[in-house]
Structure formats: C-alpha cells, structure tokens
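Still learning folds. Look over my entry:

…
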Amino acid sequence: ALMKVEWRGKPVWVLRRTPEMLARLEGMDDRLADPQSEISEQPAYAQNAARAVKPEFLVMLGVCTHLGCAPLDRFRKGDPELGADWPGGFYCPCHGSRFDLSGRVFKGMPAPTNLSVPPYTFVDDNHILVGEDQARAA
C-alpha cells in the first residue's frame, strides 16, 4: 500500500513493496535513463536498485522531476492505459513521464532524473523519520 505524508511542504510517499514488486525491478536497466541513480537525487544509502535502506520500503518525493506534477501510482503490470510491456510503477499524467517501482525514470521521458529520495531513517520497525539522515541516526 502507498502511504502519503508531507515533509517541508512536499508530498512524501512510502511504498511497502511485495517480493513480486521487487522482482520486477530486475532486468530493467536497459529501459532506464539512470538505472544506477548516478545523476539523480538520493542519499548514498538509497543509491541502489531498490533506492532504499530496506528494499521492502520505498521512501521518495511524490513530485515529478520534469515540472513538479504529482505522478500516479500504476503498480499493476500490463496496465491497459500504459501497455502490455508496462512493469508497474509511477506515471505522470502531465507530460507522460514513466518511472519504475523504485522511481527510476524510463529512457526518452520528459523527466530528466529519477524521482528524489529524501533523507530518512528507521526509528524502529514500524516508524520512519523523514528528514533525519540514516547515517547520522545509526
């Protein structure tokens, strides 16, 4: 389920990904503009395929990196609107940018970079503190 909260006036999304959703991240690199998140904004601890401290939990800003619109969650594989080869992810209705289930942008999209990951840390197994860096909290 996708949970939406606010941090510094921006929407932050927390997505608890299933093992099946995580499996869909594999083999995507050739379809993505920045699969290793080298030019995208995220803390070092989220610069991985899952873009997360704990792969099950994706924490990112719900703001398209193109012009700041709010992408929609389109998690269903093969979504009728997005085509049979759609692996599931996020879709920005403003100009059509598409992102995978880690918020990584597909090649040839208006969005220049992956969706941003804010600093965050796990306070305990059930609570995430956005704005506090994992490295400092550890």
